Amino acid sequence: MLEILSYSFMQRAFLAGILVAIICPAIGVFLVLRRMSMIGDTLSHVALAGVAGGMLGGIYPIYSALGFSILAAVVIEKLRKQYEQYAELSIAIMLSAGIGLATIFISLGNSSSAIFSYLFGSIGLVSNHDIFIIFILSLLIIISIIFLYRSLFYMAFDEEAARLAGVKVKWINLYFIILVAMTIAVSMRIVGVLLVSSLMVIPVATSLQICKSFKQTFIYSIIFGVLSVLIGLIASFYGDLAPGGTIVVSSVVILFFVLILKGIKRKIKS
Amino acid sequence: MEKVLEAKNIYFGYDKNYILEDANLDIYKGDFLGIVGPNGSAKSTLIKIMLGILKPQKGSIKMLDSPIEKFNNWGKLGYISQKVRDFNSSFPATVEEVVGANLYNNMGFFKFLKKEHKSRIKEVLDIVNMSQYQNHLVGNLSGGQQQRVFIARTLISNPEVIFMDEPLVGVDVNSQEQFYGLMEKLNKELGITLVMVSHDIGVITNRANRVACVGNKKIFVHSSKDFNEQEYIKEVYGENSSLLHHRH
């Protein structure tokens, strides 16, 4: 069991994986409760365009993905005001634009195997440079969430009341969506762009099944996230599988496990 | 008597069709003011104008001695909107978390609930008689209980005035009785001025000390003792209202 940790690439994968496992569900809780889960998906498709564009232009892909998705995040916020009654339309527009650009960039370049590692994640290819960037950005995201925890909670519960209580709703909305974009750029190395949003949503869905308060929801989501990543990375190492798949499948298995346990508990009670 | 709110010569409407025209209203400290009027007569609009959420085309609002545009002491005002109970009922938040959210401005940099905040939450939950539900999920409570939680949420910042827009919609009759008992406590014991929109003219005129009728683009204020339904109908619907006045 411990032999897995003797490889330096696995040490890096675990370090990056645990950070990702903390930030994805921590951001995801607020996305799910504000019924914005699709934003994660959209921004990750834009991030893919960023990765492909970066490879084409010789830019470090995490930077270009970060730039693309933050820009898209800001545009979504702006479009949301244009289509106030059709909030999901701005998301759909961005998703199409992202996937369209990504397709063009990928077909212009000829590095489809490198793209593959960003699509589904990879453990062998996490470099020290990646770790450094992931570490700095994760720290920034974690501190931001601790700082904004109360305001984001209040806005998710009742945005109008939050505004009247002095929460700076407009700015926090904008900053939050930028945090989502950052989370995606940070996580895609391990989980892959196609599966980042699952790691934002599924641990939260599991947590919602058993929590008895918001604080619990938040903490359990992170615990389930970390658990999924640990199991997923081990399975990826031994099975030689892309980690994105194993991580997300573990999180789904945990969800079903919790659902079944809950069902049994209810039967025993009645 | 000390005025908490003064609305003067208010004109409000959409595309020049005024629904309020030269309307005036004074609210005094310690009032329990009921706002009544037919559907679409701008009752909710009036509350939103008073709170500065909607801006009138003409006229001025003075709230606690400052023009509403410059007012910033929001802790002194409580507002329970019609939509307050529209939240997602499976939202995982406890009564304590929801009530504590309104302490936002009293929390430090990182917005954690400290001991003094928790004891304050306990205090307001005691007032509304909900302290035994502190750790329950808000979504699992009945409509009447939720209503009391939201009242506790407004009470936590020690408001001088509480505005309520149809707070009793969807609340059963027993809870209504409890609700008015609570209102009396807030009004008489804690000295909070209450302003409440209600469509139930019969009940509100018994409970409030003054009644403001909104209708015919104006506001008419009575002491609730002098409130007369016949006159009310004349005022709010105009003189030719015989057709509208029928009982089942």
Give a quick precis of the structure.
In chain A, 84% of the residues lie in helices and 0% in strands. Chain A is an all-alpha fold and 270 residues long. Chain B is globular.
Structure description:
The complex is a heterodimer of chains A (270) and B (248). Chain A has a single domain (2-197), classed as ABC transporter involved in vitamin B12 uptake, BtuC, CATH 1.10.3470. Helix content of chain A is 84%, strand content 0%. Chain A has helices at 8-33, 37-57, 61-82, 87-108, 112-120, 128-157, 159-164, 169-191, 196-210, 214-239, 243-269. In chain A, helix 2 runs antiparallel to helix 9 (196-210) and helix 3 packs antiparallel against helix 4 (87-108). The longest helix of chain A has 30 residues, at 128-157. Chain B is an alpha/beta fold and 248 residues long. Chain B has one domain (3-237): 3-Layer(aba) Sandwich (Rossmann fold). In chain B, 29% of the residues lie in helices and 25% in strands. Chain B has helices at 43-50, 95-100, 115-127, 143-155, 173-189, 201-207, 229-237; strands at 3-14, 17-28, 32-36, 58-63, 66-67, 77-80, 161-165, 193-197, 210-215, 218-223. In chain B, the strands form 2 sheets. A 6-stranded mixed β-sheet of chain B has the order 6-7-8-3-9-10, sandwiched between helices. In chain B, helix 3 (115-127) crosses helix 4 (143-155). The longest helix of chain B is centred in the last third of the chain and has 17 residues, at 173-189. The A-B interface holds A 33, 35, 146-147, 149-151, 153-154, 156-158, 160-162, 164-167, 208, 211-217 and B 74, 79, 81, 83-84, 87-88, 90-94, 96-98, 101-102, 104-105, 107, 109-112, 135, 137, 153, 157.
